[in-house]
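Entry, Tuesday afternoon. Goal for today is a structural model of the target with 2-oxoglutaric acid bound, before we commit to ordering more compound. Inputs were pasted exactly as handed over by J.K., no edits. I checked the ligand SMILES twice against the vendor sheet because last time a stereocentre got dropped in transcription.
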Amino acid sequence: MTRVRRQTGPGPLFGTPPGLTLLQGFALPAEDALLAGIEQVVQAAPFRHMITPGGFAMSVALTNCGALGWVSDRRGYRYQPNDPETGRLWPAMPAAFLDLAQRAAAAGGFPGFTPDACLINRYTPGARLTLHQDKNERDFSAPIVSVSLGLPATFLFGGLERTDPQDRVALHHGDVVVWGGPTRLAYHGILPLKEGDHPRLGPCRINMTFRLAS
Ligand SMILES: O=C(O)CCC(=O)C(=O)O
């Protein structure tokens, strides 16, 4: 299932770095259920641009489902069970989301993964996620499963230090990446999204990131 895609011709090398499993098209069979699930989550907890601790609005809009949701504000980054906009619990994680995350984790070498948090990121052209580590979770033994839908994006995957060199991984609609173990705290990010129009999602990319937060 894991295949390496390399760019031909000049420009940066696109490949699959060690410690990252790229499952190309893994989510495609579940596409309809995923899109319906996202719609359902967004009705209860709409996308919003959260504020970073430094006071800037994130270019990526986000929402959550599952027992815990990732939030950012002037007080910092954290997980919490309720949506700060409404005070209500985050919507439950749709069964199709959990099933996909568990199968992808197992395919990536992490059987028995039971995420309790699904962060849903929405990128429009120009939106980006700067290099960061996912370290607000309690237990780093669980992997991260990240699903891409909509417009293609370039994923940066580096090392345990911010200054380590990064590989570039081209992510397309339906691709899933899984990382964990020695690379669980690898720095990663998304380059600014290029303009485009996806047949299912229009001018946007949706990412779903599954984690065990508690
Ligand atoms: O959008 C992506 O593919 C990556 C998302 C991510 O890195 C995050 O939510 O921490």
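Residues 1-13 have pLDDT under 50 and may be disordered.
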